[in-house]
Amino acid sequence: MRNAHRKITRKKAIIAAAGVALAAAAAFAIPQASAHNSRPAVPSVDQMRGMVGTAWATDPETGQTLITADSTVNSDQWASLLTARSDKVQVQRAPGQFRLFAEGGDAIFAGQGRCSLGFNVTMSNGAPGILTAGHCTAAGNQWSLTQGGRPVATVQESVFPGNGDFALLSYNNANTNAPSAVDTGNGTVQIQRAANPRVNQNVLRMGSTTGLNDGRVTGLNATVNYPEGRVTGLIQTTVCAEGGDSGGPLFTQDGTALGLTSGGAGDCTQGGVTFFQPVTEALQAFGAQIGQ
To answer: Which residues form the active site (predicted)?
Structure first.
């Protein structure tokens, strides 16, 4: 989480989304190494789960699995991962280290922490709320629109690590006007609906650090071994992000909400790999609605 460092005067409110168990990590079949083969042994799923700095995602339409390793994966571990390559398994390196992008859309603040507002939603009781990344809520329970400002939202529920990375905040003023829209800096995208993404889909991401960026979806149901713990059920993309973008929205130009920024590796200079919490699961967990 990056320390808060800039004043934001945008109108929208603060964070949100909490949790229930999401889809488990994708299991993939890997051929066993021969007893007469001197190459490194093919890693098992259990070994992968314990290897910090790795992630794996699937394409349900093709059955392809994509394994990604960050810069903390050593040469022996990398050699072991390479043995998993096949027609159905790809292995790639990511620049830098997997980390959480705490801080993002419009900026929101708690203590010395900064995250990004994901999507405004209507909670199950009809009051306005916000979805954001679950790991953001470690910074505090009360969130404001400016560093040290008056709190405008309160954490209701939060999930991280484990079966997701999402949280729900409620606006302290139940009469807050909180439309489902994304401030893109040069305009606004009205959010009409939420949906699950598909591999190779073109997507947009907004964050309070790096602004508006685009890319494509490369995998679904991703499992990421962050230093803070393993998280399952995520969307993997090529969209860049940096510290402070956490919780920000992943969406399409036509106004479809897809996800909430979790973390990744790299930056918006060299590019990288990023992971997002599916927004449909967060909405279902809370009984919340979007596009109202």
So the answer is: 135 (charge relay system), 165 (charge relay system), 246 (charge relay system)
Where residue 18 falls among pLDDT bands split at 50, 70, 90? very low
Residue 165 is a catalytic residue? yes
3-state secondary structure of 117: coil
State yes or no: is 183 an active-site residue: no
Contact indicator for 66, 53 with CB cutoff of 8 Å: no
Give me the catalytic one of 165, 180, 208, 245.
Answer: 165
The separation between the first and the last C-alpha atoms of the chain, rounded to the nearest angstrom, is 31
What span, in angstroms and rounded, lies between the C-alpha atoms of 109 and 121?
A: 19
Q: Choose among 82, 64, 65: nearest CA to 73.
A: 82
Q: For residue 246, indicate whether it is catalytic.
A: yes
| 3-state secondary structure (DSSP) of residue 281 | helix
CA–CA separation, 285 vs 240, rounded Å? 27
CB neighbours (10 Å) of residue 150? Answer: 9
| pLDDT tens digits, one per residue of 71-126 | 898 988 888 888 888 888 899 998 888 875 532 247 999 988 899 999 999 999 99
From 170, 180, 208, 246, the catalytic residue:
246
> Is this structure's pTM higher than 0.85?
no
**Domain 1-23+46-292: CATH architecture, name and number where available:** Beta Barrel (2.40)
Active-site residue, selected from the candidate residues 59, 135, 183, 208:
135
The residue-averaged pLDDT of 230-250 equals 96
